[in-house]
Design brief:
With 183 residues, the chain is mainly beta. The protein contains two helices and nine strands; from the N terminus they run H-E-E-E-E-E-H-E-E-E-E. It has a single domain, classed as Porin (Beta Barrel), CATH 2.40.160.20. The longest helix is centred in the N-terminal third of the chain and has 15 residues. 30% of the residues are buried.
Length: 183
Amino acid sequence: MKKIILTVFAASSLLLYSTPSFALLSFSVGMPLSHTITAGKWSDGDELKSDGVSGIFIQVGVPVLPGIGMDSYKTKIKSDALLELETVIYNLYYLLPIPIINLTIGAGVGSTELQCNGCAAFYDKGTANQWYASLGMPIIPLFDLHLSYRSVSSKIKVKAAYGGVEAADLSGNVMGLGIGFNF
């Protein structure tokens, strides 16, 4: 009987040691690796392409309840001018209580803004929304390394004084890498 109890305890400890549902607080920080602008075209038909991305993703939550997070990153746009797309999105996410892996799903809303010399005079701040998923694997107890995929929908318009037409559909995908801590 002792062997059975010890075996069951050892097996369950191995399976459940990294489960986020046993933690009191979950904290995650990450960074974007790539941003692909899938629908990107200016109103004149020219295509928009990413030339690198930098920023940060932050999430905080408790087990079983939804958590909150923020994504803030800048994407360089390939062009003759120095042009960047700044995106800030606030998220609501849920960390699924699955043993061995940490699976997170979430959604968010925020804004995008083109930044360059004179961009503020011509372009309004655009709206952005996203859904995302993150898959984390434990590297040691209470820590995980995770890869995330975000599908972002965003549009920026020309200011009303300059015609008020849609300037660009900046929808795309963002891949990120991060580390999570479960306390």
